[in-house]
Amino acid sequence: MAADAPDRLSPEADPASSAGWEGHPPRVGFFTDTSVCIGCKACEVACKEWNQVPEDGLTFTGMSYDNTGGLGADTWRHVAFIEQPVDSGIRWLMSSDVCKHCTHAACLDVCPTGALMRTEFGTVVVQEDICNGCGYCVPACPYGVIDQRRDDGRAWKCTLCYDRLGAGAEPACAKACPTDSIQFGPLEELRERSDARLAQLHDAGMREARLYGRDPDDGVGGAGAFFLLLDEPEVYGLPPDPVVTTRDLPDMWRRAAIAATALAATIAAGFIGTRR
């Protein structure tokens, strides 16, 4: 990593315009308020049913009531169940995780076929008919979201129900959520709503509440799907300070070009010197 690389990326107010979309609708996303998640998994079921996502093993993991374990090619929504010992017994923390639809998306940067694309809504989707199964996007994601399906090798993840957005409908998971833990809408509106909710919880004495992925100045330029958490991100299996993995690529290419030029000049000088 370059020593002079910035810890934060400059926010990109309109990633859809940067991707070439003109006259596009406002950027949309998810705000997930984990303080009202009841762990019903309606979001998981709705996601699978609408997107025809295959079942993911139905394996009893022995880790609380969490039978999916994490996001993957066949799990686009994952409800985490976290048990925490407290003075009164056990506290349950529940959170429905999903692709973050990053402002600066490393998966987009490394895809060699253009299978990963930025939509007019500012979201990031995989075009499965173009994906060649190279898998470059998998290690590029700082959240470990995108994955390859075992039977065909192609990459799959949440599309934020791109087909439903085009028809003016909200994503299936948000539609199915009975407590409005998963909220969908224009990203700026969701940020304002999350700020108000955080202030409400702090006023109620829940000082441990914090927002995750809301800051447009963070390491991925702000997430299109962000969260209100009741503990440290690591407790929920989230990286504490994610950074887009391709952040240093421009500097690396510059240094490689300088090194290649210097090498070519050295070889040329040696060749000329030999002829003399």
Q: Care to describe what's here?
A:
By secondary structure, the protein is of the alpha+beta class. The chain folds into two domains: 15-244, Alpha-Beta Plaits, CATH 3.30.70; 246-276. It contains eight helices and ten strands. The strands form four sheets. Strands 8-1-10-9 form a four-stranded mixed β-sheet. The longest helix is centred in the C-terminal third of the chain and has 27 residues, at 249-275. The chain is globular, with a radius of gyration of 22 Å. Residues 1-8 have low confidence and may be disordered.
In short:
The chain has 276 residues and is α+β, with helices and mostly antiparallel strands. It is built from eight helices and ten strands.
Topology:
Elements lengths: L14 H4 L9 E6 L8 H10 L26 E9 L2 E9 L8 H5 L5 E3 L5 E3 L10 H4 L6 E2 L6 E2 L5 H5 L5 H5 L5 E5 H17 L6 E3 L12 E5 L19 H27 L1
Parallel strand pairs: 1-10
Antiparallel strand pairs: 1-8, 2-3, 4-5, 6-7, 9-10
Counting structural domains, the number is 2
CATH architecture of the largest domain: 2-Layer Sandwich
Mean pLDDT rating: 88
Helix-strand pattern, N to C?
A: HEHEEHEEHEEHHEHEEH
**Which value, in Å, is the CA radius of gyration?**
22 Å
**Do you know the CATH topology of the largest domain?**
Alpha-Beta Plaits
The secondary structure category is: alpha+beta
Give the low-confidence spans.
1-8
Q: Name the helicity range.
A: 25-40%
For the report, how would you describe the main beta sheet? Answer: 4 strands, mixed
End-to-end span in angstroms? Answer: 42 Å
From the spread of the alpha carbons, the general shape counts as globular
- The total of beta strands comes to 10
For the biggest β-sheet, the strand order reads: 8-1-10-9
Number of helices: 8
